Amino acid sequence: MPVYGSIVEKTYAALAALTPFHAWNTFQDLLRQQYLPEDDLRQIQWRRFRNILEHAWAHVPFYRRCFDRAGLKPADIRSREDIARLPLTDRTELAAAFPDACRANTIPRRQLRLVETSGTSGAGPFRLWIDWDALNEKYALLLRNYSYAGWHFGRRMTALWNQAHEDYRPWWRRSVLKTVVYHLFHRKRWLPPLGPVGPLDEAGAQIYRRRLMRLTPFLLEGDARALYEVGLRCRPGNLRPPPVQVISSAASATSADLRRDLEALWGAPVLNNYGPHEAEGLACECLARQGMHLSLDAYLVEWIVDGRPAGAGEMAELVITDLGNRAMPLIRYRTGDLARAGMRRCTCGRTLPVIHDVAGRQADALWTGRGWFTETDFQDLLRPLGMAYRCQLVREATDAYRVRFIDPAGVDGDVARRLQEALGQQLGPAARLVMEPVAMIRPEPSGKFRPLQCPGGEGA
Ligand SMILES: [Zn+2]
């Protein structure tokens, strides 16, 4: 709807000119920056990195202490190689410094917003102070990510998450501004959240089908598990898939094969999107689907193994520095997510490099001695058995695993046997598996589903 889109754009431009809500201008800058020569992009990144370092050292007690302990001052970080000398931080350390020691003492508290993330991998929620400029920039990054999918104002979007997602909080626990912006400007609507892990019944599937046929979104964004479950049930037999142009998959790691299944189910391209709450808009795929474009102008990303930079292609933990948020800087922040190291060029023409997809949480992955067995590896093992998102592997002790699986036919010995064989091959002869057929698998109290719960360290 071009008229609608143009009204929204003009409204945003007017707001940027007349009020402190300047996200539109930042978005225009970001759109230009995605095609800048790579050297220019890296210069922007380095300049912002230096600024945030100086700022954190001068004004954030937590970082002053960290740097002092390491015997470093910002002036000691002269090149990119020097970055590895700076200490890593994680959510536990920052949570211990909350609310004041992790916050810049130059910005009055009343000017800050508080972002609360849901807990992952058993950790509690994480709270983050964010300043107004950073809030504007995160929103602009979100818009740029949507633009990779071909979405623009005026086009409809629909969301489908699990019940833990903040969009499903009761209205009094949501940001009024965000809700209004999404409804009115993004033309965004929500499908009902997906509940426990298990097949949708026919009545549930009907609700999704009917809603999608009515909404006809250009962009459907959602959690990969929810997209898979609803996709399966909305397209039984040769029924046409619901009318969706592009799908954006986030919140769960998705293997390349599973993504292909999703595309076949929905008859639409599926773009991977990665941006934890602490680092929104970090990376997102474009329609060329060659990896996720990293927002190099807003974040600095490192791949770290045992404290050292990873080699190209090596599976490593993603460590990020947020170049925008001065209220509570995140410098060399351990995300806890695993991905293969390295950046490449995409053929779409954008100069923002692309990175590999996230393979899952490190805290849930199993170290096999040869490498990590990650959530995406687990999905790839389950896929040929028709068990993707239908199974949970929990390591209860060394070499002792509980395998919960949804048995579609009630008691189907064949499914259990094939699953046990495949897992036995992966985990080795010493592994003892307790097979537990269940009608459904409960997600975490936070609402997230953790298919793999194998705290790493000891081998399989
Ligand atoms: Zn691209």
Overview of this protein structure:
This protein folds into two domains: 1-298 and 324-329, Rossmann fold, CATH 3.40.50; 365-453, 2-Layer Sandwich (GMP Synthetase, Chain A, domain 3), CATH 3.30.300. The chain is globular. A nine-stranded mixed beta sheet has the order 4-3-5-6-7-8-9-15-14. A five-stranded antiparallel beta sheet has the order 11-10-12-13-16. It contains twelve helices and 22 strands. The protein has helices spanning 2-18, 23-33, 38-59, 61-69, 91-96, 132-148, 176-185, 202-215, 224-234, 256-266, 375-382, 413-427; strands spanning 113-117, 126-130, 157-160, 188-190, 219-223, 246-250, 270-274, 283-285, 292-294, 299-305, 308-309, 315-322, 333-340, 343-344, 354-355, 358-361, 366-367, 372-373, 391-397, 400-406, 432-438, 452-453. Helix 2 crosses helix 6 and helix 3 packs across helix 4 (61-69). Residues 286, 288, 293, 346, 348, 350 line the site of zinc ion.
